Amino acid sequence: MIRVLLVDDQAVVRAGFRMFLELAGGIEVVGEAADGAEAVRLARRLSPDVVCMDVRMPGGNGLIATREIVAGDPPVPAVLVVTTFDLDEYVFGALEAGASGFVLKDTDPDDLVHAVRRLAAGHGLVDHTVTRRVISEFARRRPAAEPAAGPAADLTPRETEIVRLLAGGLSNAEIAAELVVETSTVKSHLGRAMTKIGARDRLQTVVWAYRTGVASPG
């Protein structure tokens, strides 16, 4: 059973999300919060697997709440940013704060369920259309950087290459085709790379790649 915390200042939105998620089966909404501060308190008390986080709320925004939740003691729930604006400045802040995926508030209910299940499984939403646009814009706005020492230097050349292709928006299958290897080989290399850099999921691996200069816009 996937445990979900809903965070939105509009009760009708929370009620709609609760209905969609619980009707899907295998998902339980364990709590609701109307602002960021309440979200942080409930995340620590309820230990959900996924937090569906609005970014614009009176009395505490989702950006601050995302950063505090992700920085908490393990196990850390994955944060799914649910927003009206796919290129909202708050979304970029949430991306850097540690969000694992994004969906729009008017998304199809099945897509919301799919997103929650992917985040609960540790996959993130790097292949989602909205997420790709956010990553592209995020990368464009960041200044160029030299590859960082430390964790970046610990990656093998093949791991670095795979992370760079992932940051370019390629799926595992597309990376495998590009490198002429099996998809299982890509998964294995990517898993080791994520462990080395301490990334929780694919999306945060992409963020790390741009932040360290391992990947660059274009």
TrEMBL record:
The modification 4-aspartylphosphate is found at residue 54. The keyword Zinc-finger does not apply. The gene is liaR_12. One of its GO terms (molecular function) is DNA binding. SMART domains: HTH_LUXR (SM00421), REC (SM00448). InterPro entries: CheY-like_superfamily (IPR011006), NreC/VraR/RcsB-like_REC (IPR058245), Sig_transdc_resp-reg_C-effctor (IPR016032), Sig_transdc_resp-reg_receiver (IPR001789), Tscrpt_reg_LuxR_C (IPR000792), WalR-like (IPR039420). Keywords: DNA-binding, Phosphoprotein, Transcription, Transcription regulation. This is Transcriptional regulatory protein LiaR. Residues 3-120 form the Response regulatory domain. Residues 148-213 form the HTH luxR-type domain. It holds the Pfam family GerE. One of its GO terms (biological process) is regulation of DNA-templated transcription. Gene3D superfamilies: 3.40.50.2300.
